[in-house]
Amino acid sequence: MKVKDVMHKGVDWVSPDTPIAEIAKLMQGHDVGCIPIGRDDRLIGMVTDRDIVCKGVTSKDFNPARATARDVMTEGIHCCREDDDLAKAVHHMETLKVRRLPVINKSKRMVGMISLGDVGHFAGADLVSQCMKSVSAHH
Length: 139
Prior knowledge:
By secondary structure, this protein is of the alpha+beta class. It has helices at about 20-30, 50-55, 70, 85-95, 115-120, 125-135, and strands at about 10, 35-40, 40-50, 75, 80, 100-105, 110-115. It has one domain: CBS-domain. Helix content is about 40%, strand content about 20%. The strands form 2 sheets. It has a 4-stranded mixed β-sheet with strand order 1-7-6-5. Keywords: CBS domain.
């Protein structure tokens, strides 16, 4: 099975200057836990619901009215290709201990996102179990 067969298609990204409140509304509206961050037509990071809480809300100097993606995002981006085998993408998620990966095409354009939930719906029980243990382990 290929990543393109299980991914969520048509994921949007926002700029690093996007207010946190707007990002939270996007997450809520799309029922997702992360939003990719891009600049100059390139992905540069990710904001997760956990980033907003752990790097933002719990920070002494956090001002939700002024905070932007740049203030809480995890820089750097890891992704997989839409034509990758699902097991390869799951192994990548395990190694990185991440719950979600952006999916790119041959032109390096983001075309979707794959999450643990997607893996759980389509992968075999052994692959799902192994991935859950690795990704959910305390860092």
